[in-house]
What does this fold into?
Amino acid sequence: MKNSSLGSIAFVLFLVFFSTAVAAIVQNEKIATFKVYGNCPMCVERIQNAALENKNVKAANWDLETKMLTVVYDEDKVSLQEINQNIANVGHDTETVRAPDRKYKRLPDCCKYDRPPVKS
Ligand SMILES: [Cu+2]
It folds into this structure.
């Protein structure tokens, strides 16, 4: 009897801590979708990994058909600008950040997408 009530107290405490932790994670989570230029299935992994490089990005999914990347991220800890920058750094232009030319040139041939015009 004593053991089982201790057990249920522990269980209730566990639930309280667990739900608090989950609430804290969910609270600052934001979803955003933006365009990332790419070409083939190899790009899918490269783009998603670049987004996930920042641990405050919880999920990333790039659609090869629409070229749209959807990210779930903690807006208190990482900005969309930073996420765009990380992706541009591996050679993929995004709708707001252009990849360095030398990074674009280093992409495998199958990944060389048509670059958007340079904004003047
Ligand atoms: Cu590719």
